[in-house]
Amino acid sequence: MSRLYKEDHDDWLTVCLKYLLFVFNLLFWLGGAAVMAVGIWTLVDKSDYLSLLESSAFAVSAYILILAGVLVMVTGFLGCCAVIREQRSCLSMYFSCLLLIFLIELVAGVLAYVYYQQLSEELKQHLNQTMTSSYAQQGKDSITQAVDRLQQDFKCCGSNSSSDWLHSVYVTSPEGGDRVVPDSCCKTPTPECGQRDHPSNIYKVEGGCITKLEQYLADHLLIIGAVGIGVACLQICGMIFTCCLHRRIKLDPY
Hints:
Number of helices: 7
Oligomer: single chain
Radius of gyration: 27 Å
Helix content: over 70%
Structural class: mainly alpha
Shape: rod-shaped
Strand content: under 5%
Distance between the termini: 20 Å
């Protein structure tokens, strides 16, 4: 009697573990889609701003997220197959994939954290030079568009202040057309509106565009980190369930 009860109890535990892994794989697949979406969103919607950054760590983190998202979605399908087949070799492969993805996300998280610590210093050192020396110059169309979008989106002018543009290559050249700031600094951009830098005409924000961009990128890094931590927690749960099911299948006589 006790032997039959123990066998029924063991079978029940195995079935529960299988259903838990099925539910986990569904959540894991959705998490992979979210990770990939955040990575693609970073590269597509924020691509203009990436050209203003000296370091490629921000873009690399996004590429790693996309790679991890694709692997997560494929691994979720593999996990369902492993549960259905109840083969230890499939479960071992599934566990290895979870561990690999976890390590990839860990690398992305470390990159994001390191870059977060260096973000303020990098912007202070390079943003002003990039804006003043490359704006509206030949072969620098991507930077020009990025600066124009930056100043319009964040309603700012210049890296630290609008006076930064007085020393720029563009304003001091004949192409500047007597402008003191680019037209994208204007509250209502029109041709040659940058010839007047009165506060009623252009954006004058304390801290300039550096403060705005730094806060924006920091918030985005927090989103990347939060999504990565959420999926990593799911992976840890998945690895625990996989180990338990692996052990149950090993013990079951069939």
